[in-house]
Write a structure and sequence with these properties.
two-stranded antiparallel sheet, 2% strand, mainly alpha, 273 residues, single chain
């Protein structure tokens, strides 16, 4: 146990030493490097790194950005842009881990700092949209997990108008329920469920949180049935009837596995399975 603790502590110390060495080297090599931040103030890049560190930006991100600047793999102005965006996002209460992942992923793929900075800016705008919408509907500051899920939902292709319409149709819901319901709606819509069936099913499961939580995994069940050759409209009609009848999802799933032909699955598919 002590050896493991010493090893971990040693690794943390090495990271700190590397970080401060990078900053010291940058100051020596570029003592007059000054860049504009988002608030129209002037700040030297080494100071910006310190500001980012104080804001809670991960050391791994700071090390990567600083090291690539020193190795001339990343332009200093682009590095300054990335760190400024991260600092501003943190100050706005946005989930910066998602943004940091974008930076790390982008640089690993060799994407230019300017393009990554543009992508970060778009992500921040999207997160701010979700944040303001959640505040309007729930009256409270959203949790980081909710903002992250909202971003993932929007990445699936659902439009802002569709998000706003969904929120308007389901007023009075708490944050977890409205976001989970939107996720369910988005997945089923992406699967190609017709609007009238989708709206009816979602309206039923959104009546209370317990029902929603029980049926939130129905998209996976739908995908399994469709892969076996089942008919989409038959599945949704049966799912709607099951919710109305108070049938639990596992009972519904068992019925589907025992009676696949009732979903329109061809007999040859049934025999193969």
């Amino acid at each position: 146990m002590n050896c493991k603790f010493i090893r971990i502590t040693g690794q943390m110390t090495i990271c700190r030493i590397r970080f401060f060495l990078f900053i010291a080297m940058f100051c020596l090599l570029f003592p007059h490097a000054v860049f504009a931040t988002g608030k129209d103030t002037q700040i030297a890049f080494p100071q910006l790194v310190e500001v980012a560190k104080g804001a809670g930006i991960q050391k791994e991100t700071l090390l990567l950005v600083t090291q690539e600047v020193l190795e001339e793999k990343l332009k200093t102005k682009d590095a300054a842009c990335l760190l400024s965006k991260l600092v501003d996002a943190r100050a706005s209460g946005l989930p910066i881990t998602l943004l940091e992942e974008k930076v790390m992923e982008g640089r690993a793929k060799g994407i230019s700092g300017a393009k990554i900075c543009g992508a970060i800016e778009s992500m921040v705008k999207e997160m701010n949209f979700s944040k303001q919408l959640l505040i309007q509907k729930t009256g409270a500051e959203p949790q980081e997990a909710a903002l992250r899920m909202m971003f993932e939902i929007r990445s699936q292709g659902i439009t802002r108008d569709q998000v706003e319409a969904f929120f308007s149709s389901h007023t009075g819901k708490n944050e977890a329920a409205i976001v989970e319901g939107l996720r369910l709606y988005s997945l089923l819509k992406q699967a190609g469920i017709p609007s009238h069936e989708l709206d009816e099913f979602v309206a039923l499961v959104m009546k209370d949180d317990a029902t929603l939580m029980r049926w939130k995994e129905v998209p996976q069940l739908y995908s399994l049935v469709i892969r076996r050759g089942g008919a989409s409209n038959v599945f949704m009609n049966k799912a709607i009837k099951a919710v109305k009848a108070g049938i639990l999802p596992h009972q519904f799933a068992r019925e589907l596995s025992l009676q696949p032909r009732s979903l329109g699955v061809p007999e040859q598919n049934t025999q193969n399975n």
